[in-house]
Specification:
By secondary structure, the chain is α/β, with parallel strands linked by helices. 32% of the residues lie in helices and 19% in strands.
Length: 366
């Protein structure tokens, strides 16, 4: 079987898990089965991953469970080629906004259909449950045409195309790096009162939206949802997470539980959401995974899982990451709690020792 045919088959298996979730059906295969096959495929075709396995004394052909596969540190996406195909075959190239190590992380995708299917399925379940689609979709961010290398812009555009009812020019309200306030105010004011809307925004954008409104309200229709993602720092001031949520709830006239946190990153193909709309017993600040992804809190030096309730850095296993790294090692601090995991911000200072060692091993420095 050619590498492309093998990739296509793995994508089909990942999408089958997504489809089963949408239909409320059992997973068509165990998580560990597909994870092991992804690890073997990536060890054969992703530059550096075989070296990482060898440095850890792991035979990729002997991997039987996801936990046995070494995770690729996110910094590897800044300095190495973490993809399993020829560069010319990439249909999407997403880049991080950071400049750590003097470079932006780059995630190339040959097939974006698995990414899009996963985003739509879990986004619909956690952001839009109970809504009769299509509904107005408003992105307080740039379009994917204006920001073609932004995975967030691509996700927002995917949601807008699948769920929205407005033309593209009435959807995106960050243009040239600025919030188009007159156009946004006109759009929100014209929304039908009996149809909830979905607002897609980063925390950074919402801080600046609140600043631009200067205390004035801009009410959305009843039942509307607001996606909140990214950090809480603005250029001029910092807003604590709970305070920002309350301010957004009051200014946009939405239930606080309808302001829903999303956690994702350029190096992944899946996202994680707060479940406050989908489940009455869900807590704000607790994120949940889809069946095709896992977040494991690991010790920052040993990379061994830590007990629930203890803080570690996030090892994320994403079965939709077929052609890059199904397991990645982040510098984000997380804690497993009942119902999901809490996101506690980046590890302070230099990269955790476990991340640094893994990057050195992947690059052949071990």
């Amino acid at each position: 079987m050619s590498s492309r045919a093998e990739s296509d088959a793995l994508h089909a298996r990942a999408r089958a898990i997504v489809l089963a979730f949408e239909r409320g059906a059992p997973m068509p295969e165990p998580f560990d089965g597909l994870a092991a096959d992804l690890a073997r495929y990536q060890a054969r075709h992703v530059h550096g991953y075989a070296r990482l396995c060898a440095a850890r004394g792991v035979d990729p052909e002997a991997i039987a469970r996801a936990a046995e596969a070494p995770a690729v540190p996110t910094d590897a996406f800044k300095v190495s080629s973490v993809f399993a195909f020829e560069p010319a075959d990439a249909t999407a190239i997403f880049r991080t906004s950071g400049t750590t190590l003097g470079a932006r992380g780059t995630h190339r995708m040959r097939d974006v259909t698995t990414y899009e299917a996963a985003a739509l399925a879990f986004g619909r379940a956690l952001l839009a449950p109970g809504l009769t689609l299509p509904v107005p979709v408003i992105a307080v961010g740039p379009s994917d045409a204006e920001a073609p290398d932004s995975s967030l812009a691509h996700m927002n555009a995917t949601f807008a195309r699948a769920w929205g009812q407005a033309e593209a020019e009435a959807t995106y309200f960050v243009r040239g790096g600025e919030i188009a306030m007159p156009a946004l105010r006109e759009r929100v004011t014209a929304l039908p009162a009996n149809t909830p809307a979905i607002v897609l925004a980063t925390s950074f954008a919402l801080v600046h939206l609140l600043d631009a409104l200067g205390g004035r309200r801009l009410p959305l229709p009843a039942g509307s949802r607001v996606m909140l993602t990214g950090g809480y720092k603005g250029k001029s001031r910092e807003v604590e997470a709970g305070a920002l949520r309350r301010a957004v709830s009051d200014t946009l006239a939405v239930d606080p539980r309808n302001v829903i946190g999303e956690y994702g990153m350029t190096e992944l193909s899946s996202q994680f959401w707060e479940a406050t709309v989908a489940r009455a017993d869900a807590s704000q600040g607790v994120y949940v995974e889809p069946p095709w992804a896992r977040v494991v809190a690991v010790h920052p030096e040993t990379l061994a899982p830590v007990p629930d309730g203890q803080i570690g850095i996030a090892r994320i296993e994403d079965l939709a990451n077929v052609d890059s790294a199904f397991a990645i090692l982040t510098q984000d601090r997380v804690r497993r709690v009942p119902g999901g995991f809490e996101l506690l911000g980046r590890a302070p200072g230099a990269p955790p020792r476990g991340c640094s060692i893994a990057l050195d091993e992947m690059l052949g420095g071990a």
